[in-house]
């Protein structure tokens, strides 16, 4: 099995993916554009390993060995030997396409190129390369060391072999995969949370129930860990509205049209926890 991984982007997601992969025995090259970003990413990994060690969930020697398996670099060429590359840079299609175009020239032909995008169609990223059949979505969840899900997304040309390699990788780092067979906007997870948040917002907007009661209904009625409106506040109402609007634009399905109150909350800056006010006061 392939054991050399390159991770592009040492932010929240990239460092998390590097962390779980190194712990699972992968040799990881972690690449970002500045030494500061790399230091922050590696520092976060170290601190997280320390927490697991303190809780008795990881042996100190294993943490030390895992950390030694992570090399940081600002040089994209250092990824050339990778068997799998996972890209986790900003959610901007121009940035991602440029990276994939360069990776395509650098990385060996048989390597698989994966993107951790939450919403950009994999087909659009894959089209920047000469190997769209070896490009796949590998959508990890935050925080990566804690969240078990990896949503694997087939682009229009992704091969079965590529999907199998991505699955093997994600499972080797302890994740459970779900496969999105068609490259639809929002994949499976963002479509589900968007539909739920839109309907919860409509119920709230029309005065059918309070935010607290809508969330309590989902928690106690369906066993959700968190209600949809509290989730929207945590994620950022602006971010969720943007995601929902994207799905609506692509699918023209009315159920994803952001309700008016959601747009006004964003206009007013009431975007959830980060602003102190959303569906709840924080
Ligand atoms: N944050 C989440 O909860 C979450 C969950 C799932 C998926 N995602 C997706 O993961 C990706 C990364 O998100 P994040 O939250 O880690 O972002 P982040 O802002 O924490 O990190 C992005 C990193 O990419 C780096 N970067 C930018 N251009 C680069 C380049 N050309 N080469 C190398 N590094 C570069 C930045 O310096 C930064 O360190 C996005 O596509 C996002 O949609 C995020």
Strand arrangement across the biggest beta sheet: 3-2-1-4-5-6-7-8
What is the total number of structural domains? 2
> Which small compounds were modeled alongside the protein?
nicotinamide-adenine-dinucleotide
Q: Given the structure, what is the number of helices?
A: 11
Major β-sheet annotation: 8 strands, mixed
Gross morphology = globular
Structural class: alpha/beta
Fold-level CATH name of the largest domain: Rossmann fold
CATH architectural group of the largest domain: 3-Layer(aba) Sandwich
Structure description:
By secondary structure, the protein is of the alpha/beta class. The chain has two domains: 4-180, 3-Layer(aba) Sandwich (Rossmann fold), CATH 3.40.50; 189-274, N-(1-d-carboxylethyl)-l-norvaline Dehydrogenase, domain 2 (Orthogonal Bundle). 48% of the residues lie in helices and 14% in strands. It is built from eleven helices and eight strands. A hairpin with an 8-residue loop joins strand 6 and strand 7. Helix 7 (189-205) crosses helix 10.
């Amino acid at each position: 099995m392939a054991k050399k991984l390159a991770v592009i982007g040492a932010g929240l997601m990239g460092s998390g993916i590097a962390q779980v992969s190194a712990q699972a025995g992968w040799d990881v090259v972690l690449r970002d554009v500045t030494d500061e970003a790399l230091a922050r990413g590696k520092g976060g990994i170290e601190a997280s390993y320390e927490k697991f060690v303190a809780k008795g969930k990881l042996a100190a020697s294993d943490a030390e060995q895992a950390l030694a398996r992570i090399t940081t670099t600002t040089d994209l060429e250092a990824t050339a030997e990778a068997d799998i590359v996972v890209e986790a840079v900003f959610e901007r299609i121009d940035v991602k396409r440029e990276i994939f175009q360069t990776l395509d020239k650098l990385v060996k032909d048989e390597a698989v190129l994966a993107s951790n995008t939450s919403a950009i169609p994999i087909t659009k990223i894959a089209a920047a390369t000469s190997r769209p059949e070896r490009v796949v979505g590998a959508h990890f969840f935050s925080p990566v060391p804690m969240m078990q899900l990896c949503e694997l997304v087939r682009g229009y040309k992704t091969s079965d072999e590529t999907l199998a390699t991505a699955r093997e990788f994600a499972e080797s780092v302890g994740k459970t995969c779900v496969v999105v067979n068609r490259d639809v906007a929002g994949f499976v997870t963002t479509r589900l949370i968007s539909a739920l948040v839109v309907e919860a917002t409509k119920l709230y907007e029309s005065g059918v129930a309070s935010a607290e009661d809508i969330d309590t209904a989902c928690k106690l009625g369906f066993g959700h860990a968190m209600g949809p409106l509290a989730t929207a506040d945590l994620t950022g109402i602006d971010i969720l509205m943007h995601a929902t609007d994207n799905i609506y634009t692509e699918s023209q399905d009315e159920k994803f049209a952001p309700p008016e109150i959601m747009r006004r909350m964003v206009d007013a800056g009431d975007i959830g926890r980060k602003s102190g006010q959303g569906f709840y006061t924080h």
